[in-house]
UniProtKB/TrEMBL annotation:
Record's keyword terms, sorted: Stress response
Organism this protein belongs to: Alteromonas australica
Keyword field contains DNA repair: no
SHSP domain residues: 29-143
Highest taxon above the source species: Bacteria
Similarity-based family: Belongs to the small heat shock protein (HSP20) family.
Name used for this protein in its record: Molecular chaperone
UniProt cross-references to Pfam families, sorted A to Z: HSP20
Keyword Chloroplast included in the entry's annotation: no
């Protein structure tokens, strides 16, 4: 296990405790299962797509939830019916086990849409920075008036 000394950050940055918690969460995420496999794509400057291979799962078996800055994708198969338990496999390479995968979203990243096609789940996201957070230029000698 790697340890990272963050003390230089604490001397240089205000609010770096948030960065430390993100690094800690990332190190915990490395210990997660690799099932199901997924891709993260950068579609445009502020547009992203997570594509997850969910073979054997239907739309009803998969739930997608966003809470605070965490995207959680859960797949739960309904209890197996009698026909499925009677099947005999010579080789079973398609894993249909339950899963939960969590992704830490950056600030202002919003989930736009989700779609499932050909055994792949696509989740589209976009970073939408509010006007109040965008940089603005201040003229020298000007006064900013507060809105009352």
């Amino acid at each position: 296990m790697r340890t990272i000394d963050l003390s230089p950050l604490y001397r240089s940055f205000i609010g770096s405790d948030h960065l430390a918690s993100l690094i800690d969460a990332a190190s915990r995420a490395e210990k997660q299962s690799t099932y199901p496999p997924y891709n993260i794509e950068l579609l445009d400057d502020d547009k992203y797509r997570v594509t997850m291979a969910v073979a054997g799962f239907s739309k009803e078996d998969v739930t997608i939830e966003v809470q605070e800055n965490t995207l959680t994708i859960t797949g739960k198969k309904a209890t197996e019916d009698k026909e499925a338990t009677e099947r005999k496999f010579l080789h079973k390479g398609i894993s249909e086990r339950n899963f939960e995968r969590k992704f830490q979203l950056g600030d202002h990243v919003k989930v736009l849409a989700a779609d499932m096609e050909n055994g792949l789940l696509h989740i589209d996201m976009e970073r939408v920075i509010p006007e109040a957070k965008k940089p603005r230029q201040i003229e020298i000698g000007s006064r900013l008036l507060e809105n009352n």
